[in-house]
Write a structure and sequence with these properties.
2 domains, about 65% helix, about 5% strand
């Protein structure tokens, strides 16, 4: 028997009943904790899955829009806003992908080429399915999503014209995300999963805050 195991066995033999009882109690609490974690993760609905999958595509289109800012002569204020959107929504896409993966659901993988968005659904077995251009999974039927013509209009704009169009379209886009969250909360049994609720609530607050900021930026442009 290895020396460490011999020492551990000797410690257990000489340990007081109180120490052994405390050890048993700790193990029971740990087992209870993980059981509750597992139960909590199973408390989600098809509506939660649909929300995560849809919001990944929705966020990905915001990345397409925001990446145009530096190359289209955006003002410093719009560039900063676009960079903030990229950072926040990249992080949230990663969170949503992990949420789906942890629950054994198919995970949308995002691939962007210029104005084109490809979504590949990857299941738990690492198999990859046919990609869907421009978001897939009914992306254009989601609230706030820009059409291809609108994306092309934005990509063609420069300078102050780009700033104005970016703000107008991103307000539209953010309002769509707010609607998606509100639709999720309106469904019976949805958003009971703690992680889903926290993420959806955070998206709701952040998007409303940025809408107000962008509306003020538009107003300032008219002064």
């Amino acid at each position: 028997m290895p020396l460490l195991k011999v020492i551990a066995a000797a410690v257990l033999l000489t340990a007081s009943p109180g120490i052994l009882a405390a050890q048993d109690s700790t193990e029971e609490l740990e087992a209870l904790y993980w059981a509750r974690q597992k139960e909590a993760m199973s408390r989600y609905t098809p509506a939660d899955v649909e929300f995560m999958v849809g919001m990944i595509s929705h966020h990905a289109q915001a990345l397409i829009m925001s990446r145009l800012a530096p190359e289209n002569g955006a003002s410093r204020a719009v560039e900063v806003l676009a960079a903030r959107i990229i950072n926040a929504q990249n992080d949230e896409i990663s969170i949503m992908q992990t949420w789906l993966s942890d629950r054994g659901e198919a995970v949308p993988l995002v691939h962007i080429e210029g104005l084109n968005l490809m979504i590949h659904m990857k299941d738990g077995q690492a198999s990859e399915h046919q990609g869907h251009q421009h978001g897939g999974h009914g992306a254009h039927h989601m609230p706030g999503m820009l059409t291809q013509a609108q994306l092309e209009e934005l990509a063609a704009a420069r300078g102050a014209a780009f700033d104005r169009l970016f703000l107008q379209y991103m307000i539209q886009h953010h309002k769509g995300a707010v609607t998606m969250v509100e639709d999720l909360f309106a469904q019976d049994g949805a958003a009971q999963d703690e992680a889903a609720y926290k993420l959806a609530s955070s998206i709701h607050v952040d998007q409303i805050t940025e809408i107000a900021r962008m509306q003020q930026m538009l107003s300032d442009m008219d002064l």
